[in-house]
Amino acid sequence: MEAASTYRRVMELGPESAEAYPAEVAVGNIELHQGRPLVALAHYQHALATRPSGALSEEARWGKARALRAAGRFAEERAALEEFRARHPDSQLVPASTRRLAEIGP
Q1: What angle do CA 95, 90, 59 make, to 5 degrees?
Q2: Residue among 76, 21, 28 at smallest CA distance from 53
Q3: CATH class for the region spanning 2-104
Q4: Domain spans of the chain?
Q5: What is the maximum alpha-carbon separation in the chain?
Q6: Calpha distance 49→46 (Å, rounded)
Q7: Best label site of 17, 42, 43, 45, fewest CB within 10 Å?
Q8: Nearest to 57 by CA among 100, 28, 98
Q9: What superkingdom does the record give (predicted)?
Q10: CB atoms within 10 A of CB 28
């Protein structure tokens, strides 16, 4: 996919640049959509490690939880959803995270 290639090039040319952060989240979204949750997870985690409170941290945390679910790592998904709710209590995705936590169970 051309968009993913462009985003990867941005990350390679300036891994610490302001442009690399949104590119990292975008590549995570693309990888998740293409059925590669572990690759997506790595991108979301890297984005969160570099900018834990960045403008896209809500999207990255939600993507991280979705990637963990797709990978079948439900205990980690639960922890990611709990972190999501704690860090983004006003998010429109809180109801969806609450439903998913109920599905996963304790």
Answers
A1: 80
A2: 21
A3: mainly alpha
A4: 2-104
A5: 43
A6: 5
A7: 17
A8: 28
A9: Bacteria
A10: 30
In which residue are the tokens 């979705």 written? 66
DSSP 8-61: HHHHHH-TTSTTHHHHHHHHHHHHHHTT-HHHHHHHHHHHHHH-TTSTTHHHHH
> Long-range pairs for 38-42 at CB < 8 Å and ≥24 separation?
38/67, 38/71, 40/67, 40/70, 41/67, 41/68, 41/71
45, 67 Cβ separation under 8 angstroms: no
pLDDT of 43 > 90? The answer is yes
Half-sphere exposure of 81 (CA within 13 A, CB side): 24
3-state secondary structure of 106: coil
Query: What is the per-residue pLDDT across 53-76, written as a single tens digit (0 to 9) for each?
Result: 989 999 999 999 999 999 999 999
Q: Please, what is the angle between helix 57-70 and helix 94-104, to 10°?
A: 20
